[in-house]
């Protein structure tokens, strides 16, 4: 089978930046604030059990997702860290009306999300593009995912069956939501 008979194949590029572990007691600079208005939003509440249930079947073995003492005492996080792939998959669940095929997926992680805090998901539809973001409770931007769709080709969409229930929540989310801090 040659590549022409397989159709279009996805192309991936990754630019990964790792942060240094901050010294104990050193305050981190404030993060970028999330946009204030969204067309759709949802709020989830990931806890230790949710993170463990995700880690186990996909062999996601980093201890910051399931060992709270390690996350806090060794890595300096206040709580377990929510998986980036979980947040990305949930944000990718927002689709534009009438869009069929995923043309491009641009993910940027800005700040960690933590268990025990609300996981806010928000989206703004702009024609065949959907900008999505996940702000933390304080309004700090944690992740953005820009989804560019085609309107006339079959979908090229990666499916995560274990996320179907969570993705259904985002599709039923109320409209006209705001950044968590904008109502204060």
What report would you give on this structure?
The protein has 184 residues and is of the alpha+beta class. It has a single domain, classed as Thiol Ester Dehydrase, Chain A (Roll). The chain contains four helices and five strands. The protein has helices spanning 48-55, 68-74, 84-92, 164-171; strands spanning 40-44, 101-109, 119-126, 129-135, 141-150. It has a five-stranded antiparallel β-sheet, covered by helices on one side. A hairpin with a 2-residue loop joins strand 3 and strand 4 (129-135). The protein is globular and about 50 Å long. The chain starts with 39 loop residues before the first strand and ends in a 13-residue tail after the last helix. Residues 1-5 and 154-176 have low confidence and may be disordered.
Here the CATH topology equals Thiol Ester Dehydrase, Chain A
Instruction: Tell me the Rg in angstroms.
Output: 18 Å
Distance between the termini: 59 Å
Instruction: Give the strand order of the largest sheet, numbering strands 1, 2, ... along the chain.
Output: 1-3-4-5-2
* Proportion of beta-strand residues: 15-25%
* SSE run: EHHHEEEEH
Shape: globular
Helix content: 10-25%
Level-2 CATH architecture: Roll
Class per helix and strand makeup:
alpha+beta
Q: Total strand count, please?
A: 5
- Continuous helix count: 4
Top-tier CATH class: Alpha Beta
CATH homologous superfamily?
A: Hotdog Thioesterase
**The biggest beta sheet, please?**
5 strands, antiparallel
Oligomer: single chain
Uncertain spans, ≥5 residues at pLDDT below 50? 1-5, 154-176
Number of domains: 1
């Amino acid at each position: 089978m040659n590549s022409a008979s397989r159709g279009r194949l996805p192309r991936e590029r990754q630019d990964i930046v790792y942060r240094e572990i901050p010294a104990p007691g050193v305050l981190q600079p404030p993060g970028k604030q999330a946009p204030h208005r969204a067309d759709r939003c949802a709020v989830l509440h990931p806890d230790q059990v949710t993170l463990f249930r995700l880690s186990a079947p996909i062999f996601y073995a980093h201890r910051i997702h399931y060992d709270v003492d390690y996350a806090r005492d060794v890595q300096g996080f206040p709580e377990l860290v929510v998986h980036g792939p979980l947040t990305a998959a949930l944000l990718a669940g927002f689709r534009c009306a009438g869009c069929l095929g995923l043309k491009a997926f641009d993910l940027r992680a800005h700040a960690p999300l933590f268990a025990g805090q609300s996981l806010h998901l928000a989206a703004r539809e702009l024609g065949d593009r959907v900008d999505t973001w996940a702000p933390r409770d304080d309004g700090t931007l944690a992740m953005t995912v820009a989804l560019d769709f085609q309107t006339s080709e079959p979908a090229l969409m990666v499916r995560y069956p274990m996320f179907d229930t969570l993705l259904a929540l985002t599709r039923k989310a109320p409209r006209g939501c705001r950044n968590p801090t904008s109502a204060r």
